[in-house]
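Quarterly update, task 2.4: acetyl coenzyme *A-bound model.
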Amino acid sequence: MKNKVVTRITGTGSYLPGHIMTNDDLSNIMDTSDEWIFSRTGIKERHLAKDETTAFMAAEAGKKALEDAGVEAAEVDLIIAGTITGDYVTPSTACEVQEKLGAVNAVAFDINAACAGFMFAFHTAHAYLQSGIYKTALVLGVETLSKILDWKDRSTCVLFGDGAGAAVVCADGEKEKELSEGNGGILAFEQGSDGRRGMALNCCGRKNRNPLTDNGWIPSYVSMDGQEVYKFAVSTVPVSIQRVLDKAGLHVEDVKYFVLHQANIRILQSVAKRLKADIGKFPVGLDHCGNMSAASVPVLLDEMNRKGALEKGDKIVMAGFGGGLTWASAVVEW
Ligand code: ACO
């Protein structure tokens, strides 16, 4: 019988920009209020990058994750960044992080799956590790969304924030703080995409611009059909979570925490209700971070890890969902 390679998260890290923008701060520069934003979303404040670049934040988060895992940069053989807000079209954010960390032996590339970006990167790393191609991965979710928001559109700009999260994922047998044998680690994955509904949440890139066209490039910003995205999230995410639990042979009651993408408190409440799960099992980070797209899940995971909320043997569901449309869920035994 073929041996299954067990893969585990062995360290986490995160970085939030120094500048905090509260709902009240926003109400001083646009026609909005703390009451409107908080009551509809659960968001109180978010961090916005001033001088920090996407790659800088990702590298800082990555550094902390490597320290937490006890892994040297030179041991990393795979870096994948989930992001839609890299500093350059090329080089990729992952290549910039490789350079900043001195991870000279790594293969590095980015994945574009918007708010599911970290989860898609995580699944990709897991697949590489399971196949035996690589052994030690640094998985990043990082966004500087503030640079692709229309700060004159109050219906979108109040929802988002900037930040970076990271996880070191190792194949069993590699350097780990506490390596157990047999079961555990990453138990199951489930993911999907629906390009037919992609325009519900979009940010247009560069248009054709060459001697055959007269299109000047007009910058475009995040545009969203909020209610459509809401309907997508509350119908798709519980199904995806149920599927991944079935794959792992687990039930909702077996799960200690559901670490979900932090788009909106109402989405978390609705997913909990549909799964018949205790809302207390859904940690919240959006109150102080807003929606950080690909960074939401790894930042929240790191906050929980650092405050000691995760104990060995805990079953955790992680799920991301968003632009594309895309979604992904995983079950992890800590
Ligand atoms: N402050 C004050 N008023 C506002 C603001 C604001 N920031 N934004 C919009 N409004 C006004 C609108 O102009 C509108 O006024 P009108 O009735 O006079 O025309 C009114 O509030 C209602 O606007 P809606 O867009 O219909 O607001 P809605 O109740 O749908 O709430 C929200 C918007 C919170 C985004 C909601 O659609 C939602 O929860 N969507 C879920 C999707 C989501 O959270 N997406 C985040 C990113 S996607 C992702 O991460 C997967």
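Highlight for this quarter: Confidence is low (pLDDT under 50) at residues 174-182.
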